[in-house]
Amino acid sequence: MSPWRARPRNPELAKLVTKLAKDERKHFSFYYHQCEKRLMAGGWKARWLCTTTIKRFWEPVGIGVGDPRTLEFIASYLFGNERGHQELKKINETIQALPGMEWFTMAAIGSSR
C-alpha cells in the first residue's frame, strides 16, 4: 500500500483524510476536464501555449520553497520504490492523454526539462 493511501489509526483523522482525498478527486476531475476542453477548442495555439509554458516554467510543488534535502527525502519516500514509479508513470500517462500533451514525461524520476 502506498504511504499516501495508508489509513490513519485515529478515526477522526481517517475521516478528515478521506474527505480531503474526495475533495482532491473532485478538483482534479474539474481541472482535467477544463484543460481537455480548452486544449481541444483552442486548437494548435492553445496546445503550443500550454506546451511552451510547461516546458519553460513548470516545477513540482515545493521546489524553491523548502530545503532541497527535505524535498528529496519526501520524493524518495513516496516514489522511491516500484509502486511509486508506477504512480509516476500513471501521472505521465494521464497528462499524455490530453490533446497535444503526448510528449509529457516530466513526472518521471530523473526527468528533466
List keywords for this structure.
113 residues, mainly alpha, 4 helices
Give an overview of the whole structure.
- By secondary structure, the protein is mostly helical.
- It is 65% helix and 0% strand.
- The mean pLDDT is 88.
Q: Give helix % range.
A: 55-70%
Distinct helical segment count: 4
Number of domains: 1
Main β sheet profile: none
- Principal-axes geometry comes out as globular
Total count of strands: 0
Instruction: Quickly give the structural class.
Output: mainly alpha
Quick recap:
The protein is an all-alpha fold and about 110 residues long.
List the helices and strands and how they pair.
Layout: H1 11-41, H2 43-57, H3 68-79, H4 82-96
